[in-house]
Design a protein that fits this description.
Helix content is 55%, strand content 9%. It contains 6 helices and 3 strands; from the N terminus they run αβββααααα. α1 runs parallel beside α2, α2 packs across α3 and α2 packs across α5. By secondary structure, the protein is mainly alpha-helical. It is globular.
Length: 155
């Protein structure tokens, strides 16, 4: 799916990259990923180097969610549908909170992997906890509207 996210991640992109590094994950940028925009392997996130800052932020959040949810511990879901649904739901919450609007609606991405409302419901606790973990490392606006929106999205 093509990415053309809108918005300006500004300082959030640097904070996100720092949070990823602080988690012991190395970010690698490459010229060609065979059609993918990014992927995660234990301890490493690889992204396409030609992405815009907005797309970079959106892809990094999605892949960082995979790192936190699926590359560590013994509770990795066997189903790719569940893994992609969880990562994309986290990416939607965090991207929205930092002012990024992905060009691909989260629902379309989730449906691409056969995810649905039941998949989301079953993973809601994991999605919320991971979104809060990432958002805690990213400076957010202090306006009451932004604070309310961030709280609403993460709950």
């Amino acid at each position: 799916m093509a990415h053309n996210a809108t918005g300006d991640p500004g300082v959030h992109l640097t904070a996100l990259e720092q949070a990823i590094a602080n988690a012991g994950v190395v970010i690698t940028r490459m010229a060609d990923l065979g059609g993918a925009h990014g992927y995660s392997q234990p301890g490493r996130i690889t992204i396409l180097e030609s992405l815009t800052p907005a797309d970079t932020a959106a892809v990094l959040v999605h892949e960082f969610a995979h790192e936190l949810l699926h590359q560590r511990g013994d509770d990795r879901p066997a189903s790719k549908t569940v893994r992609e649904t969880e990562a994309e739901a986290v990416a939607f919450i965090v991207s929205t909170a930092i002012g990024i609007r992905p060009s691909v609606d989260a629902i379309d991405y989730i449906q691409l992997y056969d995810g649905n409302a039941d998949t989301l419901r079953q993973s809601l606790h994991r999605i919320q906890a991971t979104a809060k973990t990432i958002l805690s490392a990213v400076p957010l606006e202090t306006s009451p509207v932004a604070a309310h929106e961030t709280t609403r999205l993460a709950s």
